[in-house]
Design brief:
Blueprint lengths: L3 E7 L8 H5 L5 E7 L7 H11 L3 E5 L5 E6 L3 H6 L1 H26 L19 E4 L2 E6 L2 E6 L5 E5 L11 H10 L13 H14 L3 E5 L6 E5 L24 H4 L4
Parallel strand pairs: 1-2
Antiparallel strand pairs: 2-4, 3-4, 5-6, 6-7, 7-8, 9-10
Length: 256
């Protein structure tokens, strides 16, 4: 989904559109404020102010170019109207993730650690490869799967015991957009991460999604509420390392 862009050159405060005008911009358009050299030193200050005054918008202050880009995000009303769609997407995500991860451990001839699935993959010589029409790659807290025929994409979480439905905002939207069965989408989604955050937050407030704790300290996830719930082994210092003496989570993630 492409958006058209309206460019406004900003040489003074008077050139900045009012908040009312910005709010009226259609969702399929973005606004680019292009700052002139004489007013460039005000860009960050103005960007911060616009962020505060425009909830429901993505205000991006460019790190290099002299510009601020503004775009309307998915609205609460749109999410409420399509809550059944997002709920079904979350159920599909969970079901596919479970199928793929069990299929992978069968292919690799390893036993999936029900308490801490990530530990299953700690000593793989090759954390990536092919499984039928799927490419897979274990990284961070996830195993990425991409279908080479349909381009469907899913990141399966590995730090929630046998709960494989944790929804990262960016990965969830990428799954939705890459799943051909959902097209045409019932609602436009332009900015994957920012729109994904709003969808998760609204679905949590509607109690269609709920938070769950992780196997990793101070890490929580979001899953669809209507599901067959599984027990998630809570994090305790050293409780996973005792069963696998050589495993070090932070070294596995490249953080030590």
């Amino acid at each position: 989904m492409e958006r058209s862009t309206n460019v406004i050159v900003v040489e003074s405060e008077e050139h900045i559109p009012s908040i009312k005008t910005i709010r009226s911009i259609p969702k399929d358009k973005t606004l680019k404020l292009l700052f002139g050299a004489s007013f460039l030193n005000q860009r960050e200050k103005i960007g911060k102010r616009l962020e505060e005054e425009l909830p429901g918008f993505k205000v991006a202050i460019h790190m290099v170019e002299p510009e601020i880009n503004i775009a309307k995000l998915i609205t609460d009303q749109e999410i409420e109207e399509h809550q059944s769609f997002f709920e079904q997407c979350a159920k599909d995500y969970r079901a596919l993730g479970e199928i793929l991860i069990f299929k992978l451990v069968k292919k690799l001839k390893v036993e999936l650690d029900k308490d801490f699935p990530l530990g299953t993959f700690y000593d793989l010589k090759m954390p990536s490869g092919h499984m039928d029409e799927w490419r897979y790659y274990v990284h961070g807290f996830h195993c990425c799967f991409e279908n080479t025929m349909t381009q469907q994409y899913i990141e399966v979480p590995l730090v929630f015991s046998y709960e494989f439905g944790d929804l990262d905002p960016y990965f969830f939207i990428k799954f939705i957009k890459s799943t051909k069965a959902y097209h045409p989408l019932p609602v436009d989604i332009y900015i994957d991460y920012a729109d994904g955050v709003r969808i998760l937050e609204k679905m949590l407030s509607l109690r269609k999604f709920e938070k769950v704790h992780s196997n990793v300290g101070n890490h929580f996830g979001v899953v669809v509420t209507d599901r067959n719930k599984v027990e998630i082994t809570p994090y305790r210092e050293g409780n996973f390392i005792r069963s696998k003496p050589r495993f070090n989570l932070w070294r596995f993630l490249g953080l030590k």
